[in-house]
C-alpha cells in the first residue's frame, strides 16, 4: 500500500523575535496538516520560503517542529524557523510553507501584526506588514547605511498615502502622529487600563504604584467618566477619560499599552475595534503588556497568534511552563507576581463566608459592557432552572446553612460573576445573614480580603485567597456540565493541587462549612504547603517587579527598534 502524500491545510505566522544577540530572526507559527498527533514529531520536513512579488523563492529555511495544544489535544503543528539576519532578503517578500509537493501561503496572524514594529539590528532593518490578502509581508532594508532612515520613512509615508487613498482602517494614525509629534516628542508614555469602566484589578494596582512610587514614569490610566472610581482615581492625577481626544492622542503616541483584560478595552469607541489588531499596532509600535486578571490555570486559552503580547506576567512557575508549552509565547512570559497581590494583606476576622462562583458560557455569553449586562443576555441554556441556578439557590436557602450561621454568628455573602450580574439583580432577600453583593459595584479585592472562609467552584480568584492565606472550599456541583460546556484543559487540578477540600453537592458543601466553623478555622498544613509551592514570590513587591520587567522590555526594544 502506497501512502498518500500529506496535504497542508493552512499556515500562519504568530510572532517575530530577534535572538542570538541580534544575529538571528526567529519566526514562530503553525502549519496545520494531518499526521501531527503522537508523542514524537512526525517524520516531515517543512520548508519556509521567502518569496519575491513575482513568486520567485529568494530563501528557503528548514523549520523545527513545536508541540501546540489544538482542538483539545497536543499536536506537532507548531514551527520555529531561524534565519540569519544577513540572509533576510532585501525589499518586499511574502512567505509560503512546503512539504514535498504541497504548498500553502503563510498568513499573518492578528497577534503577529499587533506586536509588529521595525527591528533594526546589525545588517538589516525589517518589519512585518499586513498585505491585502492577509498573508505575511516583510519589508527589509540594508542597515545601517547612508540615508537608510530617510529611505525607510519615505517608504512608510508612501504606504500610508496608499492606505489613506484606499480608506484602510487606522490609516489616519501616522498622519496624526506626525501632526501632534511636537506635543509628545521625547516622552515615554505608559497607558494603563482594564475594562473601560473598571479600576479594581492589576491595571489599577500597577497605576497606583507608579503614581505613588515612580512619578518619574509618565503613566496614564484610561477610565470611563461614568465609572464609580473616576473621581477617586483622578485624585492621583493622570486619569484620562475613555474615548476623549486626549485618550486618542495618547493611544497614538504611547510607548506601552498595559491592560489586565485585553488591549481592545483601551481602544477609543470612535475607532473600529474589529480592525485594531491587524491595523493599529504596527502603525504605532507600542509595547503590549498583559497584566492579566488572575493566574491563568487554563493556559490553552492563551495564544500568541491572537494576543500578540510583548510581555506576559505570571506568578507561578507551573503557570509559566504551561503557557510556554501551549501558547507560542516564550521569553515574553516573565514571572513577576501580579500587582494586585501587593494589596492582599489580611484584615481582622469578620466572621464572613464568601461564595464566588465563576460563570458558564452556556448560561450567559461573554459580556464586558454594562449595557449588555443590564439587559441580561442569555446563553444556550436558560439560566432559570439550570443546575447552576438550582445549586446556588439551594445553598443560599438551606435551613441548615442558616442555622449554622446563626449558631456561630457568621454571615454568608454571594458575589455573582461579572457576566451573571443581571441574573441576580433585584434578587429577593433570603435571610438576615445572607447577602447577594453587586459584582459591578463592589470592590472585589476588599470583599475577598475581609472574608474568613472562601467558597468557589472553579474561579481563578482562589489563587488570590491562597496567597492571602484564607481557608478555601471548592464545590464542583455541576462537574460534568462544566467540563462539557465551559472548561478548558488545565495544568491545575483542584483535587491534586488545590488549597482546600472539594465537595459536589449542597449537603457536602455545608458539611465542609460546618467542619470549618467547628474547627480551629485555619488552613490545614497540607494546603499551606501547596500554597507555598504554588507561588514564585511571597512578598509585596509584585508591582515593583512588573515595572522593572516593562522597563527592561522597553530598554531592550529600543536597542532593536527605530
Automatic annotation (TrEMBL):
Keywords: Cell membrane, Membrane, Teichoic acid biosynthesis, Transferase. It comes from the Bacteria. It is found in: Cell membrane. GO terms for biological process: teichoic acid biosynthetic process. It holds the Pfam family Glyphos_transf. Its main location: membrane. It is a peripheral membrane protein. GO terms for cellular component: plasma membrane. One of its GO terms (molecular function) is CDP-glycerol glycerophosphotransferase activity. Coiled coil: none annotated. Belongs to the CDP-glycerol glycerophosphotransferase family. This is Uncharacterized protein. It comes from Aeromicrobium endophyticum.
Amino acid at each position: 500500500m502506497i501512502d498518500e502524500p500529506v496535504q497542508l491545510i493552512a499556515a500562519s505566522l504568530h510572532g517575530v523575535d530577534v535572538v542570538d544577540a541580534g544575529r538571528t530572526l526567529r519566526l514562530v507559527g503553525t502549519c496545520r496538516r494531518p499526521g501531527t498527533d503522537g508523542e514524537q514529531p512526525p517524520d516531515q520536513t517543512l520548508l519556509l520560503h521567502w518569496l519575491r512579488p513575482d513568486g520567485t523563492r529568494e530563501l528557503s529555511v528548514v523549520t523545527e517542529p513545536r508541540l501546540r495544544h489544538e482542538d483539545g489535544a497536543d499536536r506537532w503543528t507548531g514551527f520555529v524557523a531561524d534565519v540569519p539576519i544577513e540572509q533576510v532578503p532585501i525589499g518586499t517578500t511574502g512567505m509560503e510553507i512546503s512539504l514535498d509537493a504541497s504548498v500553502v501561503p503563510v498568513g499573518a496572524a492578528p497577534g503577529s501584526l499587533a506586536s509588529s514594529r521595525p527591528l533594526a539590528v546589525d545588517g538589516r532593518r525589517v518589519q512585518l506588514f499586513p498585505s491585502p490578502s492577509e498573508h505575511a509581508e516583510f519589508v527589509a532594508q540594508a542597515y545601517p547605511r547612508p540615508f537608510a532612515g530617510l529611505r525607510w520613512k519615505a517608504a512608510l509615508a508612501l504606504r500610508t498615502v496608499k492606505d489613506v487613498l484606499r480608506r484602510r482602517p487606522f490609516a489616519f494614525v501616522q498622519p496624526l502622529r506626525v501632526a501632534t509629534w511636537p506635543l509628545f516628542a521625547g516622552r515615554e508614555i505608559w497607558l494603563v487600563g482594564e475594562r473601560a469602566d473598571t479600576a479594581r484589578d492589576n491595571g489599577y494596582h500597577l497605576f497606583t504604584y507608579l503614581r505613588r512610587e515612580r512619578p518619574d514614569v509618565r503613566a496614564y490610566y484610561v477610565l470611563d467618566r461614568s465609572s464609580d472610581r473616576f473621581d477617586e482615581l483622578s485624585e492621583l492625577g493622570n486619569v484620562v477619560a475613555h474615548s476623549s481626544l486626549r485618550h486618542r492622542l495618547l493611544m497614538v503616541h504611547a510607548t506601552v499599552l498595559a491592560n489586565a483584560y485585553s488591549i481592545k478595552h483601551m481602544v477609543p469607541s470612535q475607532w473600529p475595534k474589529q480592525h485594531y489588531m491587524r491595523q493599529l499596532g504596527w502603525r504605532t509600535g507600542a509595547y503590549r503588556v498583559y497584566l492579566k486578571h488572575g493566574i491563568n490555570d487554563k493556559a490553552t486559552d492563551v495564544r500568541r497568534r491572537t494576543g500578540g503580547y510583548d510581555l506576559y506576567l505570571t506568578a507561578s512557575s507551573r503557570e509559566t511552563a504551561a503557557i510556554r508549552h501551549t501558547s507560542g509565547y516564550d521569553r515574553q512570559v516573565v514571572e513577576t507576581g501580579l500587582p494586585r497581590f501587593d494589596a492582599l494583606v489580611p484584615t481582622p476576622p469578620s466572621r464572613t463566608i464568601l461564595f464566588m462562583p465563576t460563570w458558564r458560557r452556556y448560561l450567559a455569553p461573554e459580556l464586558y459592557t454594562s449595557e449588555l449586562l443590564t439587559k441580561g443576555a442569555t446563553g444556550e441554556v436558560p439560566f432559570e432552572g439550570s443546575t447552576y441556578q438550582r445549586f446556588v439557590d439551594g445553598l443560599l436557602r438551606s435551613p441548615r446553612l442558616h442555622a449554622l450561621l446563626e449558631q456561630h454568628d457568621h454571615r454568608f455573602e454571594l458575589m455573582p460573576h461579572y457576566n451573571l450580574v443581571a441574573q441576580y439583580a433585584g434578587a429577593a432577600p433570603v435571610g438576615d445573614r445572607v447577602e447577594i453583593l453587586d459584582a459591578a459595584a463592589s470592590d472585589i479585592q476588599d470583599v475577598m480580603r475581609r472574608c474568613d472562609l472562601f467558597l468557589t467552584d472553579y474561579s481563578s480568584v482562589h489563587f488570590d485567597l491562597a496567597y492571602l492565606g484564607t481557608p478555601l472550599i471548592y464545590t464542583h456541583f455541576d462537574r460534568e456540565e462544566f467540563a462539557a460546556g465551559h472548561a478548558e484543559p488545565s495544568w491545575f487540578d483542584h483535587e491534586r493541587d488545590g488549597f482546600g477540600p472539594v465537595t459536589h453537592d449542597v449537603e457536602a458543601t455545608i458539611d465542609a462549612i460546618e467542619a470549618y466553623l467547628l474547627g480551629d478555622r485555619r488552613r490545614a498544613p497540607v494546603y499551606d504547603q501547596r500554597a507555598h509551592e504554588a507561588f514564585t514570590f511571597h512578598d509585596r513587591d509584585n508591582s515593583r517587579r512588573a515595572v522593572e520587567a516593562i522597563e527592561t522590555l522597553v530598554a531592550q526594544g529600543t536597542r532593536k527598534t527605530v
